[in-house]
Each structure stands twice: as structure tokens, then as C-alpha cells.
């Protein structure tokens, strides 16, 4: 059915896998780390604002690590999915 009616329409779609980030459970650790990084940023700014320099430094380090590792995990999983598509012959030129 996909070939007969031209669906999915690869020429007009801008994303190869809409909803890929939520749909793939392997992305969840990266998403959770990203959310923890955002919360950590808020806590770090609050600690710095109240003058707790030690906690602000610890929070900044934890925030950078959470955001960095979270972004890395999401990008690595996205790359893995793209490689599977290429190996399966589903390369759409994106």
C-alpha cells in the first residue's frame, strides 16, 4: 500500500522519523538527563543568587555533565537510527 499511493511521501516530509525521540525508549535516558540538567541550572542559579558559592560550583559541574551526556546520548541514538535506515536501503537523502 505504501508504494501504490506514494506514502510515506518522502519528497515533502522534512523529518525522517517524526516522534523518533519519544517513540524510541533508548532516548529516554538522554531526555531525563536533559531535564535534570535544566533543573540543575535553576538550582545552580538559585544557589549562586543566595551566595552559596560551593553549592553553585557543584551545581554548575553537575548541570554541564547532565546536559552534555544527555545531548550525547540523544545524538548517538539518532545516529544509530540513521545508520539502520541507510543499511536497510531507506536513505532519503536527508
How does this model look, in words?
This protein is mostly helical and 94 residues long. It is built from four helices and no strands. The chain has a domain at 25-87. It is 69% helix and 0% strand.
Specify the number of helices. Answer: 4
* Oligomeric category: single chain
What's the end-to-end separation, in Å? 24 Å
Provide the structure class: mainly alpha
Q: Give me the strand/helix succession.
A: HHHH
Name the shape in a single word.
elongated
Mean pLDDT: 82
How many β-strands, per DSSP?
A: 0
Helix content: 55-70%
Largest sheet: none
Strand content: under 5%
Tell me the Rg in angstroms: 19 Å
Give me some keywords for this one.
69% helix; 94 residues; elongated
Outline:
The chain has 94 residues and is mainly α. Helix content is 69%, strand content 0%. It has a domain at 25-87.
Helix-strand layout with pairing:
Blueprint: H1 2-5, H2 20-23, H3 28-49, H4 53-87
Helix pairs in contact: 3-4
Amino acid at each position: 500500500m505504501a508504494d501504490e499511493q506514494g506514502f510515506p511521501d518522502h519528497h515533502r516530509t522534512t523529518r525522517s522519523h517524526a516522534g523518533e525521540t519519544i517513540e524510541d525508549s533508548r532516548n529516554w535516558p538522554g531526555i531525563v538527563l536533559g531535564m535534570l540538567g535544566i533543573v540543575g541550572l535553576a538550582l545552580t542559579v538559585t544557589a549562586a543568587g543566595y551566595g552559596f558559592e560551593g553549592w553553585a560550583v557543584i551545581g554548575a559541574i553537575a548541570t554541564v555533565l547532565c546536559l552534555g551526556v544527555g545531548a550525547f546520548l540523544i545524538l548517538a541514538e539518532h545516529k544509530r537510527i540513521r545508520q539502520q535506515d541507510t543499511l536497510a536501503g531507506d536513505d532519503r537523502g536527508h
